[in-house]
Amino acid sequence: MMTAREEGYRSGLVDLGAGQISREIFVNDEIYRQELERLFARVWLFVGHESQIPNPGDFFVSGMGEESVILCRDRAGKAHVFLNSCRHRGMKVCRYDEGNTPVFTCPYHGWSYGTDGKLVGVPYFREAYHETLDKSQWGLIEVPQLCVYKGTVWACWDPEAPSFFEYLGDFRPFLDLSLDSWDGGEGGTEILGGIQKWLIPCNWKFPAENFCGDSYHNISHRSVDLVGIGPSGSGRRDLQERMMARRLHVAFYDRGHQTGVYLFPKDQPMPPSYQHSPVVAEYFAHCEAERRKKRGEWARLIGSPGEIFPTTALHPRQPRTIAVWHPRGPHKTEVWRWYMVDAAAPPEVKDFLRDYYIRYSGPGGMTEQDDMENWNYAHAASRGTIARRHPYSYEQGLGFEVDHYEWQGLRIPGTVTDITEAKSSEHNLRNLYRRWAEFMEADSWAELATWRRAEQAAAE
Amino acid sequence: MSEPVNIRPLAPGTRIVLEGGAVAEIVSNPADGVWVFARYLSAPDDPGRVGQEEMIFAQDIIEIREAT
């Protein structure tokens, strides 16, 4: 039997009608190479948070796809994202993780760039270039699209891509569940401490699908639940609030974003949480009361893991984090995880959350270790000649999703699977791969922005 | 050829001698070991540069002039 390993992507590898996906899309070198061009050069990616670059000259070296980029604030206070590569011979112009600088100087031949990206220093400009080099044409390569939203910084290499807000579509209020203050105030979050970064020997889509709302793998975390690392001393999170809510998987077919969410009954008070610290418990009780006043019916929603297509993972509640799955070849992923808190939270709250967050997430976190072990061995066991002939099953809940979901007066946008009784669904995972396949097949945003056609038709 | 000058620790106010005999005073130092920002105090080859502030390449700096 011929394998597709040298062929690259082809239609049919993602068969959502049957609920099957070929292992090739995870392990095929050619498909990975195609992803870098067709996916990572066209999508919006999370690159950092404004609180990481508060002052002029501040920088944070981030990544977009495989490539290193510099998020920095220029002398005038404007945020930029540049490719971290000298225009002369390509050397990295910044080899620190973060800091403050007036210039980015290439250590190879000495070309130097201002924090606005302009080429400001060229060795022997008079003597060797005879002052004829047009410096204005040789600045750092800047992303054509950048968006700062509630402190988070997003960038896109494709000038033809829709704006970030159009890219988000109706998913925006679900992103807000991660970015707004606990009391429902607009924005107001900051990054707590440094960024955790580590490598996992698996394709980036393993963690991506896991964070789309894969609740089926909860059995993996059984040992953590038994240990009881949660903020009230049992489980790994406060579970009481979840027991009384509807559990939903929400997907946006035309955008590729998806999330889990908990929908509270109308007029139901929130059960106590963070019981291991009276100060923290009181803070969150106060915030929750305020959130309900500010957000009304929408405050009945509390967040659960989700993903902005393709590689930005949201973990909005316990713990509150954002992760990015940086591809490092078809068989390796570098995870970067940002930990978030209310900027205005008392120090005791931030300290408590820091301890809880790192107990839960990251390479040393007990929950994330379980996940990494699964992705590591699943990937390795899928690379073999025999293994890759056999697709994975994504049939769970196929056909049970609904549009116009509403419960007790609150309408939820997107396509929804209610998993309260079903326990689990692969609805959100299928949505990730639906959009992934569209990107692999579409040559332009005219094909990808399907919602524009629908809007145009409605207008006519 | 003169001995290489380590420019990284040079503080603002330090005077440096450049190839060609120009003298400049450091205004700021990004400490990248490659460039300093300096103002020309004298420039025998091009007197019009006196008073101008420019980025000075490390390999053009041949000497640190002690304050007199």
Mean pLDDT of chain B: 93
Main sheet makeup of chain A: 10 strands, antiparallel
SS content category of chain B: mainly beta
How many domain modules of chain B? Answer: 1
Overall spatial form of chain A: globular
Largest sheet composition of chain B: 5 strands, antiparallel
Q: Radius of gyration of chain B, Cα only, in angstroms?
A: 11 Å
Run of helices and strands of chain B:
EEEEE
What's the structural blueprint in terms of helices and strands?
The complex is a heterodimer of chains A (460) and B (68).
Chain A: E1 14-15, E2 20-21, H1 24-27, H2 29-40, E3 44-49, E4 58-64, E5 67-73, E6 79-83, E7 98-100, E8 103-105, E9 112-114, E10 119-121, E11 145-149, E12 152-156, H3 164-168, H4 172-179, E13 189-191, E14 196-200, H5 205-210, H6 222-227, H7 240-243, E15 246-252, E16 257-263, H8 278-295, E17 301-308, E18 312-315, E19 321-327, E20 333-342, H9 347-360, H10 366-380, E21 392-393, E22 402-407, E23 410-418, H11 427-441, H12 445-448, H13 450-459
Antiparallel strand pairs in A: 1-2, 2-21, 3-12, 4-5, 4-7, 5-6, 8-9, 9-10, 11-12, 13-20, 14-20, 15-16, 15-23, 16-17, 17-18, 18-19, 19-20, 22-23
Chain B: E1 15-18, E2 23-28, E3 35-42, E4 53-57, E5 61-65
Antiparallel strand pairs in B: 1-2, 1-5, 2-3, 3-4
How would you describe this structure to a colleague?
The complex is a heterodimer of chains A (460) and B (68). In chain A, strands 13, 14, 15, 16, 17, 18, 19, 20, 22 and 23 form a ten-stranded antiparallel sheet that branches. In chain A, helix 2 (29-40) packs across helix 11 (427-441). Chain A is built from 13 helices and 23 strands. In chain A, strand 11 (145-149) and strand 12 form a beta hairpin. The model of chain A has no long low-confidence stretch (mean pLDDT 94). Chain A is an alpha+beta fold and 460 residues long. Chain B has a single domain (15-65), classed as SH3 type barrels (Roll). Chain B is an all-beta fold and 68 residues long. Chain B has strands at residues 15-18, 23-28, 35-42, 53-57, 61-65. The termini of chain B are far apart. Chain B has no helices and five strands. Helices cover 0% and strands 41% of the residues of chain B.
